[in-house]
Write a structure and sequence with these properties.
By secondary structure, the protein is an alpha/beta fold. Helices cover 39% and strands 19% of the residues. The protein binds 4'-phosphopantetheine (PNS).
């Protein structure tokens, strides 16, 4: 049977750490849906449409592209997982500091729907310190994020923030 997992998140914006996790998840699942949660109260740097577009463009030409779908959802994650008939949720763990937040979410999701399992995968060591929040913070202050995010994201960040990267070739 074709195994599908949902990889939910804010993806504001997608990083190379997220892409690394998708690759790892595809060793276990046949297909992944990267699903952006629509949070009405949040004020993201990139709009929902921009984030969807950046993820799709980041996957362009990737050998695993055909096994990944990009989508968004409103409301509860467990309801979305049921709606798309996925077999589970995947989330990345970087450090111990992620654990409490992830543990809480996984247990709440289990309380909401005991049939849905959350699977945690460890992000590759290269990306262990990366988060979307840190990427935005560094880029805002003119720091170079080259190699930490897909090139299309790097360009979008520089355009959005109106900054120039200090790297000679940027
Ligand atoms: O990338 P993030 O912001 O850490 O992802 C958090 C996300 C989107 C996975 C989480 O906020 C979520 O699942 N939101 C959907 C609403 C929901 O189901 N909340 C209850 C689960 S704790």
């Amino acid at each position: 049977m074709d195994k599908l997992a949902v990889y939910p998140g804010s993806f504001d914006p997608i990083t190379n750490g997220h892409l690394d996790l998708v690759e790892r998840a595809l060793k276990i699942f046949d297909r992944i849906v990267i699903a952006i949660a629509v949070h009405p109260g949040k004020n993201p740097l990139f709009s929902l449409e921009e984030r969807l577009d950046l993820i799709r463009k980041s996957l362009e030409g990737h050998p695993l592209q055909g096994r990944v779908r990009v989508d968004c959802f409103k409301g509860l994650l467990v309801d979305y997982v049921r709606e798309v008939e996925a077999h589970g949720i995947v989330r990345g763990l970087r450090a111990v500091s992620d654990f409490e937040y992830e543990f809480q979410m996984a247990l709440m999701n289990r309380k909401l729907n005991a049939d849905i399992e959350t699977l945690f995968l460890m992000t590759g060591m290269r990306w262990i310190y990366i988060s979307s929040r840190l990427i935005k913070e560094v880029a805002t202050s003119g720091g170079c994020v080259h190699g930490l995010v897909p090139e299309v994201v790097e360009k979008a960040l520089l355009d959005r923030l109106g900054v120039k990267c200090a790297r000679a070739s940027c």
